[in-house]
Amino acid sequence: MSRIAAVFANLRAEGRAALIPFVEAYDPNRATTIELLTGMATHGADIIEIGVPFTDPMADGPTIQAAGRRALDAGASLHGVLDIVREFRSANNHTPLVLMGYLNPILSYGVDAFTQDAAAAGVDGLIVVDLPTEECDLLLPAATLNELDVIRLIAPTTSDERLPKVLEGSSGFVYYVSITGITGTRTASAADLARDIPRIRRATSLPIAVGFGVRTPEHAATIAGFADAAIVASALIEKLCATNVATVLEDVAALAAGLRTAVKIPA
Amino acid sequence: MNELLKNSLRSGPDGRGRFGEFGGRFVAETLMPLILELETAYEAAKADPSFQSEIDYYLKHYVGRPSALWFAERLTKSLGGAKIYFKRDELNHTGAHKINNCIGQILLARRMGKTRIIAETGAGQHGVATATVCALFGLPCTIYMGAVDVERQKPNVFRMKLLGAEVVPVKSGAATLKDAMNDAMRDWVANVRDTFYIIGTAAGPHPYPAMVRDFQCVIGNEARAQLHEAEGRLPDVAVAAIGGGSNAIGLFHPFLDDAAVQLIGVEAAGHGLDSGATAASLSRGRPGVLHGNRTYLLQNDDGQILEAHSISAGLDYPGIGPEHSWLHDIGRVEYVAITDNEALEAFQLCTRTEGIIPALEPAHALAYVAKLAPTLDADKIILMNLCGRGDKDIFTVAEHLGVNL
Q1: What is the residue range of A183's domain?
Q2: Is A49 a catalytic site residue?
Q3: Residue A16 resides in a domain
Q4: Global pTM value
Q5: pLDDT, position B235
């Protein structure tokens, strides 16, 4: 069983949802990223999403854009991100790591070489924002060959008719972009989730993670009522900017505690 | 116009929006359903004769088409070689070829029932053209423009505001055209239900490259007929400047299947191809994915996109339309590069010999024509697209000539 599947199987048994915090690699430097990854894994993160910096992050809001800019200024590269993963894995072999980013750095690395190196480094899954299902044959065969989960984004604009096509070939979990908009801006309400999650549930047996605009333990708990995981990104990056690693880790612990208070709402 | 032979070079893109390996639809899932809806709507419009007649009406009575074909006799004599003809798209309403595309797209937006328009702009020509058609049809309009460009193109910013558009200065990245396009995409993702994104060049996710090309083909179609009337034959060479490549594809496309017509696209070399400050995506880039399409891009070894440089804000873009990437790879079109200084010289040459102040974009094309014409016999014909007028550029040119306005 893959690390991601194992996490969700355990959580199902525990009856709680997963916390997936996000770290923009190299923001503001490599050492901080290692500290954050290691610390998050011991402060309640069930899976960690690592943002791969890109010059033109078209789906991201101001917070992640700025984080990516700082990261590139600090010398971030896709090779460097894999190197961080290798270092993290030398001490932690259980927390799943998912890389989230854009296609061009992967194409530039070479799809075959990248998927081999990523799997060997200890990456578990890939989220490629600008690779819709229509273009996924560029990546899917190589990712599958190297046992990397390709995690698909589903949006409020994805129709019921389109869902099966989008889910084709996806594994690990599905990532529900809960708003029409960029990261870190608006927040989906309980009513939105009650409307959206069941229709995705009908189309897939994969766990459903909800992201974009998740900021507080209360909101994470609301998500856990409907879905299987909450992804928190911009709020943590803002906290890191304003304070330090220790405070971010306190927030991660608070989010994890929030998820444990969630009341599951039957679909 | 679109009833094409199977073995024609004009039959692209394929069902996946690809020209060879270039093009495609590399957008976030949130946008994907909209892109598909747009494709369906555009296909339906193309099949509806009333759509084309609507476009023709506005192009004739509002834009002022057909634009003239001008035999540049003094320039021809001074260069001493091939006959040079200008396709004068700088005479269009708003002063450039951009309006051809804006008319087509806004009429499509209306058919689709969209009630709000967004666009990106570099120099401001596409922004002005978009704001113009929005004023004409009474639609609210938001234009994304890099903060650096807002500063260096103040007259166009004021024009857009006069026309009723909201101009949003984009501060992310290098605050130029690439970043403006990112922010326009972000706006679109957040306003998917009511908003139509009028992309200004023949790039972006399918169907934009094909759609913008189709709307710009009026340039080549007219020029072909006009030159036939003037000379009774096809040109030997057709030349156009390339940023994203919309004016060039509009000129070239109707000649793609005429093997005897040599086609030359002129990229902006900036300070020089190997200066590190260039916008020549084909000459110095390699294939990658940005802004929804796979195409040649200026990028570093890690696949990070590089900032382009050109004296011409309209060519200052690190990518190029995907059909050009394909035409480059198959060798049908030759792509060359012209530096900032060469373009400045051509700008002055055209102004003084023909009494036409060209935009800095076609000044690049002209700089290459000035090199080429003397090498050809006097019975050869060069057709060049003079795609924009230079009023917007007089401040930039003055600065480079050391003149204080």
Answers
A1: 3-260
A2: yes
A3: yes
A4: 0.96
A5: 98
